[in-house]
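Table 4 source record.
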Amino acid sequence: MEKDRLIKKLLHTLEHTEEHFEAIIDLLEKLNLKTDDYEELYKKLKELNYKIKEKLSL
C-alpha cells in the first residue's frame, strides 16, 4: 500500500515538473530571453521521466 502511494505521488510530481518546465520556456520566450538551455534540460527531463514511468509500469 505504501509503495503504491509513493509511486502515485512520484508520477504526479514528474508530470507537474514537466508542466513547470513548459511554463518556464513559454515565459522566457515571451520575454525574448534565451530558452536553449531550458529546452535541453526539458528534453532530458522528459527522457528520464519516461524511463522511470516505463520501469514503474512493469
